[in-house]
Each structure stands twice: as C-alpha cells, then as structure tokens.
Amino acid sequence: MKIRSFYKNVAKKYRHTYDFDDFMRNVHDALFAIYQIEVSLPRRKPTLSRWKGYHMANTEKWYFAYTINGDTITIVDACHAQNMYNKEQ
User: What integer is the mean pLDDT of 63-88?
Assistant: First the structure.
C-alpha cells in the first residue's frame, strides 16, 4: 500500500506529465524488486530506528523492512529512498 500511495501522490503532483502507464510501471518495478530480497538484494542492517528488529534490503528507489520465517519473507514496511531519514512513526 505504501508503494501505491507514494506513486499516487507523484501522479497528483505531476498530473500533466505523469500518466497511468508511468504509475503502473513504477508500482510493478517496486513490487517486482520485493521478489529479489535475499536473492540479489542482500540483507542489510536497518538504518531507520522504527525498523529495529527487522532485516532491511534496498534497491535504488525503495527500502524494505522484512522478517524471515523459514522460507517465508514478510514485508513489514517500505520507504522510498527520498524519504529515508530517521523519523519516528
């Protein structure tokens, strides 16, 4: 939901240059990146205090906090790179 919400806000701000195809492509790319966690996106130590206790992985545009239980990876939060700062939420 955070990914879709982020790009929905981009669409509102840039309504004359950002269309539905851009929205769908950006959401698809971010969701596809999730499947690369623990495969080609290595596990990192979380940089946000609210992610303490989780694992973190990132692409160029998105950071993901997640847990691992057996073979199951569960995404608990996502944050766009431009919003990566240590604020409490």
Answer: 89
